[in-house]
Design brief:
- 2 copies of one chain form a homodimer.
- The longest helix of chain A is centred in the middle third of the chain and has 13 residues, at 54-66.
- Chain A has 2 domains: 3-84, Winged helix-like DNA-binding domain superfamily/Winged helix DNA-binding domain (Arc Repressor Mutant, subunit A), CATH 1.10.10.10; 90-139, Ferric-uptake regulator, C-terminal dimerisarion domain (Dna Ligase, domain 1), CATH 3.30.1490.190.
- In chain A, helix 1 (3-13) crosses helix 2, helix 2 (20-31) crosses helix 4 and helix 3 (38-48) crosses helix 4 (54-66).
- In chain A, 41% of the residues lie in helices and 26% in strands.
- The N and C termini of chain A lie far apart (36 Å).
- In chain A, a hairpin with a 2-residue loop joins strand 1 (70-75) and strand 2 (78-84).
- In chain A, the strands form 2 sheets. Chain A has a 3-stranded mixed beta sheet, with no helix packed on it.
- The first copy, chain A, is built from 5 helices and 5 strands.
- By secondary structure, chain A is α+β, with helices and mostly antiparallel strands.
- Chain A has helices at residues 3-13, 20-31, 38-48, 54-66, 110-120; strands spanning 70-75, 78-84, 90-95, 101-105, 123-134.
- The interface between A and B is medium-sized, with 34 and 35 residues.
- The structure holds a DNA duplex (25 and 25 nucleotides).
Chain lengths: 140, 140
DNA sequence: CTATCTGCAAACCGTTTGCAGCGTT
DNA sequence: AACGCTGCAAACGGTTTGCAGATAG
């Protein structure tokens, strides 16, 4: 089963209806190898389903985010792009030039976190780690 | 010399003029122990200088950011708050409840980054690390 | 004296909301 | 048949811009 089918099933179990514009948005996000903002998603969705409205894109994003299937990615240029959500301890590596996004697992932070908790008295509950650079293709 | 004086000097060297509304904004940001958004800065600046306009806050933020004296902090709730810029390899630890921000130095990421570069072919040039939790006061 | 800065009002633009009709289940 | 979904248009709210007068250097 493809990722978009899985997402559609989850949406349906949640009480959502499966409509053509929604399928278009889900497919775009499930297949994307980079974070996309609402405008970009709208533009792409339009190619499959020209009648779609931007509002439907926003509403579908809201639902997908509520189900933790996608999440907002923060970058220098803005924080309005969405990507498949991290699973477990995944973080993200982004190409600064083409936007290509790669998720990776890497949790060597335990020691740092424990030391900081001791030093600052904070109780640390979450961490964000993002790496930026150039993907192989963009180094050329 | 206090931090706000240092910042004001840097602005002046850059060709900016030192005006009362600007001094108010600079002092607020230099002294803040948490990230503040334009509206919050405006509200506080107003107390010292009631005639100040929101626009001046935005324009001062722009200058301070261009001089790398402050930077935008990204949080779940939004990405519009500014904090004293990180120096060198500093990262940030934020209290989810009161917003208190602490900068810390902690760079155990070399190994992770080298391993990822080898594995993905990316050339990694930057990383963001943010920790979230509860400060000592907010744990009570 | 001159260039920069200021506050105001208006323009902007991405996002959200209200609504009447449509489509899924 | 019922309820959710759709696109449209209007509302919204934060940010930016144009401008004429004020002010730092």
């Amino acid at each position: 089963m493809s990722l978009s089918e899985t997402w559609l099933n989850q949406m349906q179990s949640d009480g959502s209806r499966l409509t053509a514009p929604r399928r278009a948005v889900v497919e775009i996000l499930a297949e994307a190898d980079q974070a996309l903002d609402p405008g970009e998603i709208f533009e792409r969705a339009r190619r499959q389903h020209p009648a779609i409205g931007l509002v439907t894109v926003y509403r579908t994003l809201e639902k997908l985010e509520a189900l933790h299937l996608i999440e907002r990615i923060h970058q220098h240029e803005g924080c309005h792009a969405y990507l498949r959500a991290a699973q477990g301890h995944e973080h993200v590596l982004l190409c600064e030039r083409c936007g290509k996004a790669l998720r990776f697992v890497g949790d060597d932070l335990e020691d740092l976190i424990t030391a900081l908790e001791k030093r600052t008295g904070f109780l640390i509950r979450e961490h964000w780690l993002q790496l930026f650079g150039l993907c192989p293709a963009c180094q050329a």
